[in-house]
Amino acid sequence: MKPRPITPLGILVQQLEEVLDMAKQAEVTPSVIAGIQQAYVLAAGIDPYLEECTTRESTALANLAQKTAAEDWSKRFSDGETVRQLEQEMLSGHIEGQTLKLFVYMNQAKRILEIGMFTGYSALAMAEALPDDGYIIACEVDSYVAEFAQACFAQSPHGNKIKVEVAPALDTLAKLAQAQECFDFIFIDADKREYVDYFKFILAKDLLTPGGFICVDNTLLQGQPYLPVEQRTPNGEAIAQFNSVVAADDRVEQVLLPLRDGLTIIRRK
Length: 269
Ligand SMILES: C[S@@+](CC[C@H](N)C(=O)[O-])C[C@H]1O[C@@H](n2cnc3c(N)ncnc32)[C@H](O)[C@@H]1O
What we know:
The protein is built from eleven helices and seven strands. By secondary structure, it is α/β, with parallel strands linked by helices. The protein has a seven-stranded mixed sheet, with helices on both faces. Helix 1 packs antiparallel against helix 2 and helix 9 (169-178) runs parallel beside helix 10 (195-204). It is globular and about 65 Å long. The model has no long low-confidence stretch (mean pLDDT 97). Bound molecules: S-adenosylmethionine.
C-alpha cells in the first residue's frame, strides 16, 4: 500500500495535485493552470531528487524497510500482538537515516541512546556509523516490534551494537540515570506527548554529555505548530510546546531543519 503523506512537503504536494485537477476541470485560465502546474512540479520533485543525490542505503536497511512495508500493522493491532496501532509511515527511512548516520560520524559518537525504535531503521542506520566498540541503547515499549527489529538486526554485521530495552521510555531513562549512563548522541522519536519529559529528564540527570547532541524527529508535525491553533491535534500541541521549551532553554542551542517531518538538532552547551 502506498504510504499516506505525513510531512508538510508531502501534504503540500498532494494538495497542489488536487488543486491542479480542480483547476483543469473548472477550465480556469491557462496561465493559472500553468502557475499551479509549476508549483506542483517544483514541490513534487524535491523528495525524489534528495533520494537520487543521497548515498544508497545498505542491503540490511533496504530489507528492513521492505519488511516493515509488507507487514499488516492493522491486523497485528486487532489481533492484540502490538500494544497500539503502529504503521509503516513511522519508519524514518533513507534520507533521515543517512542524515543520522552522518551526524554520528561527524560527532564521533560512541554511546548512543534512541528513544522510540519501531522496526529499527534509525537504530541500524546509526549503528552502521559506530566504531566496533560503540553501542546504541534503543528504547521501545512494544515487544512485538522489538522482536521484529531484532530479527532484522541479526541480518546486519552492525546489529550486535544495538541493545534493546523493552519498557516505557521514561522507565528506561530512570534506569539509565540510576546506572549513571551518559551518551554522546540521543535520538528522540517516541511518544510526542512525552517529548518535554524526555528532554527535561535527559538534561536534569546528565544523560547527555556536555557538547553532546540530541536529534528530535517530527518537530514540524505536518505543519501543525505553525498552522492556526484550532487545526492542531494533541500531538501537534505537544510538539508546539516542546519547540517552545527548547527555544527558551539556555542550556542548549538548536536548529530546526525542514527535513522530512522536521528534525531539530540540539547541542548541550
Ligand atoms: C515513530 S516510531 C519510531 C521510528 C524509528 N525511530 C525509525 O526510525 O524507524 C515511534 C516508536 O516509539 C514507540 N513508543 C511510543 N511511546 C513509547 C514510550 N512511551 N516508550 C517507548 N517507546 C515508545 C512506538 O511503539 C513506536 O514504535
